[in-house]
Recover the amino acids of this structure.
């Protein structure tokens, strides 16, 4: 039974905030392939990762426990904005004239404006607890860098951010936000000012920084198992909220996919139910899941990281400078890649102009101005709703509204002026 009222927001009490993360590892049909050492090509062990990551995070990366408790000190910070609302997009449904019921999890209400703090906070916490003084990281759109700068401020850590040069130039206010929280930001690649940059190259810069200093660890904003683990708080909250909205389950869960963390976060808790379809939305100009190959590759451009079995476009692939900077990554999460490879998860690609068309429709009917990344999910939602309309189905669609676009207005300006192209 669907909630009869015309309610659009399904909140959770703060006392209902999940206190453990959902680990998907025990639910996979077969174990994940191990990451391989970049030099020896042997499976990496915890000691290989110790120069880069906190012990607790390495443990989570390899854990087979079904649930992992969220430390109280992390919950204290997450409570600044969590639980996030689940919103029924009734006005979008009406605009589309669809019998589908469309819900979105609003991750844009976090301090940094996206889902990224869900992992930044625990990563900063575990590093601070182990005596690390400084974290180095990459950022694409700037969302992860801002999230980590915010998280480091909570636990008195220094934060060094290498920002993909193209985004650094497109989004100057991201830098101001990071500096306001005490972080420092430089454009990447640091050794080639004429290069537009890529996430792979920025990861190389950040890893070099971290291995060069004893007081510094590296933090990755996506891809790795522990990052997806931290993001499962999104899907766990959504399960409770959908029940409050009178739904038994979503028919399909949709999210944009760059490295796979917001998608994993909203979708993985639904994986054990085979009747729930899971769908990744990615850019047509960086089509990792739809056109990449499933093979071992480096996570970065310079080949400093372990090799992971994932969908990849090749670690030297430099994607066109689309505005969805967070989706310009050559690889993908090994968990997401495996699910796509095995057919448990679907993937579709969208061109940039179609994404902005979807975003502008969403903004006009629902009010919120989405991040360019989020628009990939919205474009897929619109396709799903059209399919439900054609088949006259009351399909329940859940998508992750992974971030707002209030710092992406230059992109909107370009679109509204008719100047936006699919492949810059
Ligand atoms: C708003 C937003 N959505 C999505 C992404 C893609 O990352 P992921 O696939 O890890 O969620 C990013 C990455 O920067 C982002 O900033």
């Amino acid at each position: 039974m669907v909630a009869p009222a015309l309610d659009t927001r399904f909140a959770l009490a703060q006392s209902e905030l999940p206190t453990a993360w959902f680990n998907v590892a025990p639910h996979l049909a077969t174990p994940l392939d191990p990451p391989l050492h970049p030099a020896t090509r042997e499976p990496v062990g915890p000691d290989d990762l110790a120069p880069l990551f906190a012990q607790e995070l390495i443990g989570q990366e390899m854990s087979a426990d079904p649930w992992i408790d969220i430390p109280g000190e992390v919950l204290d910070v997450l409570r600044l904005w969590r639980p996030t609302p689940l919103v029924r997009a009734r006005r979008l449904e009406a605009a589309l004239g669809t019998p589908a019921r469309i819900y979105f999890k609003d991750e844009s209400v976090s301090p940094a404006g996206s889902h990224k703090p869900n992992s930044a906070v625990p990563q900063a916490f575990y590093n601070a607890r182990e005596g690390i003084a400084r974290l180095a990281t990459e950022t694409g759109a700037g969302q992860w860098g801002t999230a980590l700068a915010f998280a480091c401020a909570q636990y008195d850590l220094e934060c060094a951010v290498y920002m993909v040069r193209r985004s650094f130039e497109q989004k100057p206010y991201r830098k101001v936000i990071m500096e306001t929280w005490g972080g420092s930001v430089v454009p990447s690649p640091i050794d080639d000012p004429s290069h537009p940059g890529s996430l792979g190259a920025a990861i190389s810069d950040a890893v070099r920084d971290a291995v060069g200093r004893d007081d510094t660890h590296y933090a990755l904003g996506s891809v790795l198992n522990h990052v997806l683990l931290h993001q499962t708080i999104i899907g766990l909250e959504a399960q409770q909220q959908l029940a409050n909205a009178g739904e038994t389950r979503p028919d399909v869960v949709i999210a944009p996919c760059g490295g796979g963390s917001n998608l994993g976060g909203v979708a993985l808790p639904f994986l054990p139910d085979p009747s729930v379809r899971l769908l990744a939305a990615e850019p047509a100009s960086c089509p990792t899941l739809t056109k990449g190959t499933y093979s071992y590759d480096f996570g970065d451009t310079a080949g400093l990281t372990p090799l992971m079995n994932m969908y990849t476009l090749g670690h030297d692939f430099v994607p066109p400078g689309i505005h969805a900077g967070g989706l310009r990554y050559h690889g993908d999460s090994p968990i997401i890649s495996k699910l796509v490879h095995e057919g448990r998860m679907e993937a579709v690609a969208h061109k940039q102009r179609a994404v902005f068309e979807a975003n502008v429709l969403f903004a006009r009917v629902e009010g919120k101005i989405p991040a360019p990344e989020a628009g990939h999910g919205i474009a897929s939602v619109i396709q799903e709703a059209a399919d439900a309309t054609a088949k006259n189905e009351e399909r329940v669609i859940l998508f992750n509204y992974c971030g707002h676009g209030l710092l992406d207005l230059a992109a909107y300006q370009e679109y509204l002026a008719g100047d936006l192209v699919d492949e810059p």
In short: DSSP finds 16 helices and 15 strands in the chain. The first strand starts at residue 9 and ends at 10. Residues 136 and 209 are 7 Å apart (CA to CA).
